[in-house]
Glutathione S-transferase-like (Rhodopseudomonas palustris), 462 residues
Amino acid sequence: MTLKLFELVGTDAARPFSPFCWRIRMALAHKGLAAETIPWRFTEKSAITPYSSEKVPVLLDGDTAVCDSWAIATYLEDAYPDRPSLFGGDGGRAMARMINAWGDVTLVAGLAPLIVADIVKLLGPDDTAYFRKSREARFGRTLEEVASTRDSAVEGFRKSLDPLRLTLKAQPFLGGAAPNYADYIAFGGFQWARAVSDFALLKPDDPVHAWRGKLLDAFGGMARNSGGYPV
Amino acid sequence: MTLKLFELVGTDAARPFSPFCWRIRMALAHKGLAAETIPWRFTEKSAITPYSSEKVPVLLDGDTAVCDSWAIATYLEDAYPDRPSLFGGDGGRAMARMINAWGDVTLVAGLAPLIVADIVKLLGPDDTAYFRKSREARFGRTLEEVASTRDSAVEGFRKSLDPLRLTLKAQPFLGGAAPNYADYIAFGGFQWARAVSDFALLKPDDPVHAWRGKLLDAFGGMARNSGGYPV
């Protein structure tokens, strides 16, 4: 068994920063599965074309290639049923789908304008050109213009975390007493942010801040020791 | 075994309209449990004071009283383990907590300004006076002022449903192939809305619209036949 994971990096191959790759890196650790990392950059599309994907994460498990973080998570759950569960049963697997959607449209999309201008600092020249052009087209503004309002925009972002915050006031993790894939979905966004930006997303007294710290420490501090700014 | 449920109504005792009571009414049906309804109105605080609650739902199960919809749902799951599960396992129970928080802060709070002015039409004089005073204090505006912007505000509400919508594009229910408590959390908000208001919340081609229709039809059309406007 040799697992390999394509992970998004910039000039520093030891500092993976994709929120979606981090969901899977945490999921692999949760299942106690070692995976070789294959550093991948925005302009290396050809490296993953054989797997019919234009984005990472892409997981290779022997002859099997799986693309898209949600598909990879469910693949891991099914392929390694004797390892700790990512979902805690069928109900959890179904509900994690909505938490995954919340993670995409509220968390990741809400984080993007706050940190996107910092991402170019991690990239080499080719990636910088690609990234700036594609993201400025998406936002309809320069990256610097997007970032210019972040001191006020962060207030709305913090408010958008209320469903996460209220849950963490009632229980230690989204997964209950211990973290599971629901936590990794949300944590991926925060690990992305700290990998690329020193912008302060959370107030120190926010329950989300304490929860993030516990996940940074999980698995021997794997996320905390993978590059990024202190939070 | 005699279950009794205090349910919020107005002048029509057969038209319960609280989003939180509807979560429990659906949960009871899911578990195949009959429950006698005790119609309760905003100004009847004294009727539930013995149960240390100021709000409904309150469930009475013999000598046991349980207050708050989340506490009632978990009570039902634990007290009736041989009935169909509301959560589909421990993972689902944990993750439903975040969906519950999303249902409160995004769905119910997002719906409120769109329909609050219509609620008084269902109420008798005492309840109307109480409701108008307490809600206008909460909003800092008259109910009519709150409602005056709903034609534009509904756009933001629809957008806020994206996590629900994206999930329903991938699977039939939040609970997976069949509905469970995650669905009832969200559905409670929509049933509240149609019980009190004819304001069109959803476009007909929205996957959320089709999902709502399936839940209106569930349990022999229980929700559809409990009063309210066609949707």
